[in-house]
Amino acid sequence: MRFDPTPLIAFMPMSLMYDDAGTIRYVAPTLAKLRDPETLIGAHISDVFSVRDNGRGNGEGPIPVGTKLYLNFLSGISTPLKGMAAAIPGIGLNLLNLSFGISIVDAVADYRLTSGDFAHTDLAIEMLYLVEAKSAVLEETKQLNARLQGAKVAAEEQAYTDTLTGLRNRRAMDHVMERMLRSGVPFAIMHLDLDYFKSVNDTLGHVAGDTVLQRVAKILLEETRGDDMVARVGGDEFILILNKFMEHEGLMRTGERIIARLQEPIPYQDELCRISGSVGITTTEFYDAPNADAMIHDADLALYSSKYEGRAQATMFDPKVHQGCVSDHVPQHARGESAA
Fold first, then answer.
1. Collapsing DSSP states into helix, strand and coil, what is residue 238?
2. Is 122 assigned a catalytic role?
3. Which Pfam families does the record associate with it (predicted)?
4. For the chain, which terminus, N or C, has the lower number of CB atoms within 10 Å?
5. Which DSSP state fits 255?
6. Which among 162, 193, 228, 236 is annotated as catalytic?
């Protein structure tokens, strides 16, 4: 009697037939996608698979029929399979129907299987649809999270940025100083206040003033290093945090160079805006236990010394000179804008 396996293909596309001696005689289409049929047909089943039965035996001897089997390919991708064997009476053949079990998702990816490779009644189809739906939801969630993260980063960046100049704002400065003080990193701060800026606003208008502030920001960024920070902390006030820059003469030269560049006229329409700057400097070396408030206060004292001495100059904080001084006691005409 000749057996025609064709009708079984629609129901068991992941199957094979082997004779009573264990030789594989027929390979169904889906299984043929996992291994070349020419290497399977004629091979002994024990040379293709490692087989354990439901009792977790080592699979030696004939394949048990009517019980759950656990199989792995002996070569290539060792895909874990589940199966059950049944004898076909009267023709000396046995049917081994296989499935992927919980490894189906990996198998689909490994062998590029599609829904057409499974029987229509196979619950694997439903599982694949669920996996596909889950993957789509996860991808959409991933994209949403990326957009939310991007919005969060943008919001945080905006919260720490001065919108007019693109410099850091006071909140960012406080955060950076706190971090540096906590880690014990030595640094200097340079407090810059513009001279004659009020007259620019009064005579040419606030748009001209904005142009000047943007030019000042560009100068300050050009005169500092990548690991320094420049912050706009008031209308025409700026604080520079100079990382690991402690040498007094070098700091004074930097301050004087900035002032010289600020004194260059800034074009606005058909006018030239003329400003200058006064600078006060201090460093963490002046303090046994430096803190942000004390450093800003002392840089402020040095700044107003620059104002009092005629503006357009830099002053290094000197504990012997400035100790006990309060900036509110500096004469009003030295503060800059009221006399601009």
1. strand
2. no
3. GGDEF (PF00990)
4. N
5. H
6. 236
